[in-house]
Write a structure and sequence with these properties.
The protein is an alpha/beta fold. The chain contains 4 helices and 5 strands; from the N terminus they run ββαβαβαβα. A 5-stranded mixed β-sheet has the order 1-2-3-4-5, sandwiched between helices. The longest helix is centred in the N-terminal third of the chain and has 15 residues, at 27-41. The model has no long low-confidence stretch (mean pLDDT 97).
Length: 118
Amino acid sequence: MTATLHYTHGPAFAAVEITALAFIEDVEPVLRDIAERTREYGDRRILININDVVGTFTAEEHQIIGALTYRYLAHMEKVATLAPPEKITGVSAGVARAKGLELRAFPALGDAVGWLVS
């Protein structure tokens, strides 16, 4: 895995910052790591900051990411991603939500945190 994760357990939600290049083969190991940590700490809500992921994914890759996110984080109550507005496509979140995961993408930290704690 070439991605770097910084996981912080908090009282209302956990936060993870991901620094990586946008390679689809790195997504599953990252999500597996996040799933393990959320279970270890008993976290049910998480903010995933992907502002430091360099590059873009294709529409097909976004569909895969949405399905993998559901697969690994279905135990979560709420998952918020923080991403630059130009990278928010709605595809990953749409796939995950269709499967039953409450996942939303936000361009602003305040909006993401507000939704997570609501």
